[in-house]
């Protein structure tokens, strides 16, 4: 039976949160990093009775965890690689996520068009295996489609040379809002979470990790403090090696990097290029990569790339060749090929892939997407790799390692598998599809609370209202214009120009709510990057 989160604190007032942090001397568990991995650990640990502090240097999901391809999937490409265990785990976790947050994660049908006669039986047979691995967690059966049905399922598909297609089921989600919901659910259960509060040092006593030093990034005076902990989790994604260096330096050791960053670029275009409720998947492009065309929040996402990168910038930039790859491959399958001038937003995420023991020349496409947990000699627990779909099982694995290392006491069984997140409607309740334009439906059962705030009838564009901005400031940890327009609402990711137009109004409302305009100039500079298509 599903359990449900209790109502969250009335507000996420930062002064109150900082007061609580300064009053905190010691906790069972400190989690560093507010992305999928860290938030999953925080909720799991709190539900098992541990006292939990989570600190995020930027905003929740401000890095990789807001820049996914928006898919909750078992990993068709992993099946092709023969990684059956990862596929089976991901398919199980896919069902749990869709059950626990149906307003933010839902089934989505995919169609693979076939332009060569052997592709339908070849891919169809593989996807039947995918169905079998899903078992009772299946979202729908795989179907072979003829030419006419394939074209009907994917309006806007190029039909010249089309033989047919294969339809199968996976899921999609709103990654940033899921992260935020995990944060608020953990807070509702008694965890303390702060964004814009980086860890500037890892403390050691007698050769063991004993806590952290934090700093308020929004305080010009550099407000800071320390908190002790039995266990410290490094869940900082592509930045895990930075914290590992602090830990290793305290022991006089050099650090061997764990992460091999890979860059994934996504382009957003108008839904008219493929006005379908199903997604398109090309399983093997001309260079061996995968191409998606995914309907999401009233728009169409095209992607993605898999480019090795050495730098781990907060805002990575797309390379001209990545843009060309996506547009060129899209032109092979879409009747009306998108051009650079059709792109509404460009966004880039860095995947924290775990370096293999012996690196080869295969690039990041060959690196496993499984997560890794390591416990250093001083007791720092690092988790990296993995993917959004398996965030919950990753959290369980992290806590298992903590127990095995004696860093936390013996814990009761995990409760997250059947724990509904904040806003989750009851089973069987009708849900607006995530392929539709953004609106109140992403708030689930909290929609009425949002509507009760001032400005519910004042639209700022793409379904964002003044009331939603107030809700973001009062109850969702939002501190900047970027927080609101990139992650509480997804306008920046959908249409950079529209986000720039909305920024002044958002800044005005934030000034009313939190006494700060949320740095609209910085946001406008960021939005320029999202609207620019490198050539």
UniProtKB/TrEMBL annotation:
The segment(s) forming the Alpha-glycerophosphate oxidase C-terminal domain are 440-517
Q: Which domain of life is it from?
A: Bacteria
Task: Supply the PROSITE patterns for this chain.
Answer: FAD_G3PDH_2
What InterPro entries is this protein classified in?
DAO_C, DAO_C_sf, FAD-dep_OxRdtase, FAD/NAD-bd_sf, G3P_DH_FAD-dep
Q: Tell me yes or no: is Flavoprotein among this UniProt entry's keywords.
A: yes
Q: Which family does it belong to?
A: Belongs to the FAD-dependent glycerol-3-phosphate dehydrogenase family.
Recorded protein name is: FAD-dependent oxidoreductase
Q: Which organism is it from?
A: Castellaniella hirudinis
């Amino acid at each position: 039976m599903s359990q449900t989160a209790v109502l969250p604190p009335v507000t996420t007032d930062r002064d109150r949160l900082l007061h609580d942090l300064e009053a905190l001397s010691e906790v069972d568990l400190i989690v560093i990093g507010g992305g999928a991995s860290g938030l999953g650990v925080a909720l799991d640990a709190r539900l098992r009775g541990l006292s939990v502090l989570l600190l995020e240097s930027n905003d929740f999901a401000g890095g990789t965890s807001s820049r996914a391809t928006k898919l909750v999937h078992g990993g068709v490409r992993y099946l092709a690689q023969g990684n059956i265990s990862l596929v089976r785990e991901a398919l199980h976790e896919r069902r749990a996520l869709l059950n626990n947050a149906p307003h933010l994660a839902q089934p989505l049908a995919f169609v693979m068009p076939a332009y060569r006669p052997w592709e339908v039986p070849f891919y169809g047979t593989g996807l039947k295996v995918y169905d079998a691995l899903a078992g009772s967690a299946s979202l729908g059966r795989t179907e072979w489609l003829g030419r006419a049905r394939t074209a009907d399922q994917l309006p806007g598909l190029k039909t010249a040379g089309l033989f047919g297609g294969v339809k199968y089921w996976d899921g999609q989600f709103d990654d940033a809002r899921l992260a935020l919901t995990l944060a608020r659910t953990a807070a509702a259960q008694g965890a303390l979470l702060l964004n814009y509060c980086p860890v500037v040092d890892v403390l050691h006593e007698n050769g063991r990790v004993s806590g952290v030093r934090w700093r308020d990034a929004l305080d010009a005076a550099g407000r800071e403090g320390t908190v002790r902990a039995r266990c410290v989790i490094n869940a900082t994604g592509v930045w895990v090696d930075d914290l590992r260096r602090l830990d290793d330096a305290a022991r006089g050791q050099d650090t061997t990097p764990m992460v091999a960053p890979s860059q994934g670029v996504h382009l957003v275009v108008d839904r008219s290029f493929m006005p379908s409720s199903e997604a398109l998947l090309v399983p093997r492009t001309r260079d061996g990569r995968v191409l998606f065309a995914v309907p999401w929040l009233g728009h169409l996402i095209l992607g993605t790339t898999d480019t090795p990168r050495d730098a781990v910038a907060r805002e990575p930039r797309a390379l001209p060749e990545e843009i060309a790859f996506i547009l060129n491959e899209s032109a092979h399958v879409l009747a009306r090929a998108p051009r650079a001038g059709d792109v509404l937003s460009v966004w880039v995420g860095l995947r924290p892939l775990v370096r293999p023991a012996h690196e080869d020349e295969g690039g990041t496409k060959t690196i496993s997407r499984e997560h890794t947990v390591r416990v250093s000699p001083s007791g720092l627990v690092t988790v990296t790799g993995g993917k959004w779909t398996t965030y919950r099982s990753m959290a369980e694995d992290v806590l298992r390692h903590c127990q095995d290392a004696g860093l936390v006491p013996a814990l009761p069984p995990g409760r997250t598998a059947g724990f509904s997140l904040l806003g989750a409607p009851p089973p069987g309740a009708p849900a607006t599809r995530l392929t539709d334009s953004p609106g109140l439906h992403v708030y689930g059962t909290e929609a009425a609370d949002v509507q009760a705030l001032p400005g519910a009838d004042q639209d700022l564009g793409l379904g964002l209202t003044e009331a939603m901005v107030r809700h973001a400031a009062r109850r969702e940890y939002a501190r900047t214009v970027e927080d609101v327009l990139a992650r509480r609402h997804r306008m920046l990711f959908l249409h950079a120009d529209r986000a720039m137009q909305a920024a002044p109004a958002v800044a005005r409302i934030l000034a009313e709510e939190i006494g700060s305009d949320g740095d609209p100039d910085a946001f406008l500079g960021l939005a320029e990057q999202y609207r620019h298509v490198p050539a």
